[in-house]
Structures are given as structure tokens and as C-alpha cells.
Amino acid sequence: MKKRQAAAVMVAGAMALSLAACKSASQEGSAGSQSSGDGITVAIWDNAQLDGLKEIMDGFTAESGIAVEIQVVPWDQYWTLLEAGAQGGEMPDVFWMHSNYSQKFMSNDILLDLTDRIAQSGTIDLANYYEDIVGLYQLEGKTYAIPKDYDTIGLWYNKTLFDEAGIAYPDESWTWQTMADAAAKLTDKDKGQYGFASPAANNQDGYYNLIYAMGGNVINSDKTGSGWDSPETIEAMNWWNDNLVKTAMPAQEVMAESAADVLLGSGKAAMIMQGSWMVSAFKGNEYIDANCDVAVLPKAEDGTRKSIYNGLGWAASAQGGHTEESWKLLEYLGSEGAQKKQAELGVTMSAFQGTSDTWVNCAPEFNLKAYLDMTADMEIRPYSRNTKVWEDYSQSTMVRAYTGEMSMEDVCRDIAAFMNQELEEERQ
């Protein structure tokens, strides 16, 4: 923790400049969300959601009279910005929170405690949201964020490549072996075409789904131990390595340089796994629009189908002079009406249960119902207090299995040992 704090202090000045630049860009691209002394700032990391969120924020401004300025900060800079802001007292008023970081931020008095406000609210009832998403943003009986959305994982495929190979499109009957067999047939390394792409860093939208479908786990239910060395997890990852990594995927070096969605969008990968959060970007891609579609994930041989899911939360800074205005915005964003609007505009699926059916209409060229169909088979994304520490290690170590430097079983056991040590330190 000391290292992270020192790093945050070192970059605070630079990030202050980045924040100022981001404000200017936001003002230019978000007419109507004007900055004022009485307004509040909102930080997000996904530019694809900007237009829809701006429309929702404009509705809040019209109702409340409180101006809102949206700042889009890239993912890596986003967390540096928040850490630096927590040190220097210059945080956005309202911002997205993610399960990788929520435990750390909640335990350091950075986020506004919403518990009493929620209890007194006539709008927010936490029973309306997916329980696991609510739990991501609770600590020691207190709530620090209002659920924003939820996501599931689907199997994207290139219809043109399937048609050329004479292979039927993926559907709910597919097993993982069906997918692997198709991926092998769709791979032509001489042409630079691969049946499947999923780099070592892709876990929620990659091998996590197979692990849980085959009865394994990444962390146990009470978050005291890693599941990476369980027989089921090792079996799943050995299968992943033998049937996909070695036979149907580009080299890890290629996937590290070109993300899976880029490979799909250039005709280099016939299939990828991707979260519902990518739909807003995919529907603006001419190649993907013309050639691709999405299906439910494959199932294990025993019929088990799992999608790892996650959800963002709307949080507010405990610092500064806009806590009441920030709460009003959080209450508005968590309302049934705003959550329905988020889905209707195609921003993303919404965390308020029963409000996401209209989301499938935001891109009728794709079978988005596949994502809603996965709702019945969800497993919450593995997390603990310091998720990022052990997840970063697991992703970097997984590269060594992808490149053949280590066996997959040794990688799994190595990750488990590191993770168990980290989980032990979390309990101290």
C-alpha cells in the first residue's frame, strides 16, 4: 500500500493536468453538460457510453437544476487519477467504481457512505438490484455505491468465415468441445486466420467462464483461499490450453499487440468471447456489423453453462463541497426510470432488475438476446479486498503458459500459491 501511495503522490501533478485537459475535451464534446461553480463533475472511462449518459445527465439537470460535466478518462489513467485525487483532495464528485478496486477505496474513507441516505430514500431500494452487484460495493454493513449495470459474456463469431467453411453458426446446443472443433477447422495459419482468440489477460471474457462451467473456481466462497490449484480448475485450464491455445489461437505476442475485438473486426479471428459492455463499440464497426453476430457461451459436457458477470457502481467522493448534489445524482441514476433509459439508449444493460429488455433493440443487427439469456447462468466475477494484486499476477503468469515457458498446471499452482499468500495478508 505504501508503494501505491507514493506512486500516487508522484503522479498527482501530472494527473491534475490530465484532468484539466479531460475537462476541456468533455466541454467541447458534451454541449449541455456545462461546468459551473454549482455543478458537479462525473468521471467515466468508456467513451462509447458518453452520448447515452450525457442524455441521462441532461435529464437530471433539467429536473434538478444541477449542471453535470462528464469527464472521460482512459482505464489505466482513471485509477491513477482517483488515487492521486484521494491524496491531493481533487477528486471528481461522482465516478464509476469497479470490483477490482472497490474494497480498497471503501476501506480508506475515500467514498461517500451512502447507507443512511439509501435508508431514507423513497427511490433507492437495494432489493431491486442484482444481489451480487450490490455486494461488490458494501463493506462492514455499509454501502458505498449505487449499482449502475451488469454484464454477461457472449460468443462472437464471423458469419462469413463460418459460411465459407460450411460450418453451422454457434447456438445453445454447442459444447466447449463443439467450439474447439469448429475453431480448429476455421484455423488457417498460412492465411493468418485463426478459429479463436483470447489473450492471457482475458479472464472474465475468457477462461474464467470455462473454469466455472467445469466446476472449478478462482477464489472460494469466503475469500480465504485460491481455487487455481483445485483439480477442476487445473483440468479446465489444461483443456483450454490443449484445445484452444495450442491449436486455434494466434501467438500470445500477436494477441498482446492486437486485442481480440480487433482480430474479430479484421477477419483474423473467427470467434472471440466478449462482454456486453462492448456492444456500443461493435455496433459502430462496419466490418463487425456486416460479418458478425453473437451467441450464448458453450456449455460443459454435463450441460452446465456459466457466464462470469460483473457490474459497475456509481460512487461519490467523500471529500469536497458537493456531497449533497452528488447524492441527488446517484439517487437519480439508480432510479427505475434512469435505469430503463440507460438500457433503451443502448448504453449497457442496467443493474435494476427487469429494466434491460429494451437493450436488445439498441443494435437489432445482432442477436443481443444471447446476453440476456446468459443471465440465468451467471457467476460473479472473482474478487477480494486486493483483487488487482493477485489478478495482475495471474494474468502476467498466464502468459508463460500461453508461450510454453511453463506447463499450464505449473502456472495454475504458481498463481494459487501467490494468491493464497495475498489472501492471508488481507486477513491480517
Describe it for me?
With 428 residues, this protein is of the alpha/beta class. Helix content is 48%, strand content 11%. It has 19 helices and 12 strands. It has helices spanning 2-29, 50-64, 75-88, 99-106, 115-120, 131-136, 159-165, 176-185, 203-213, 231-248, 252-257, 260-264, 279-282, 286-291, 323-333, 336-344, 369-373, 387-402, 408-427, and strands at 40-44, 68-72, 94-97, 138-139, 142-143, 146-147, 153-158, 271-275, 292-295, 307-309, 313-316, 378-380. The protein has a 5-stranded mixed β-sheet. Helix 8 packs parallel to helix 10, helix 9 (203-213) crosses helix 10 and helix 18 packs antiparallel against helix 19. It is globular, with a radius of gyration of 22 Å.
In short:
It contains 19 helices and twelve strands. The protein has helices at residues 2-29, 50-64, 75-88, 99-106, 115-120, 131-136, 159-165, 176-185, 203-213, 231-248, 252-257, 260-264, 279-282, 286-291, 323-333, 336-344, 369-373, 387-402, 408-427; strands spanning 40-44, 68-72, 94-97, 138-139, 142-143, 146-147, 153-158, 271-275, 292-295, 307-309, 313-316, 378-380.
List keywords for this structure.
428 residues; 19 helices; three-stranded antiparallel beta sheet; disordered N terminus; globular; single chain; 12 strands
What topology emerges from the helices and strands here?
Elements: H1 2-29, E1 40-44, H2 50-64, E2 68-72, H3 75-88, E3 94-97, H4 99-106, H5 115-120, H6 131-136, E4 138-139, E5 142-143, E6 146-147, E7 153-158, H7 159-165, H8 176-185, H9 203-213, H10 231-248, H11 252-257, H12 260-264, E8 271-275, H13 279-282, H14 286-291, E9 292-295, E10 307-309, E11 313-316, H15 323-333, H16 336-344, H17 369-373, E12 378-380, H18 387-402, H19 408-427
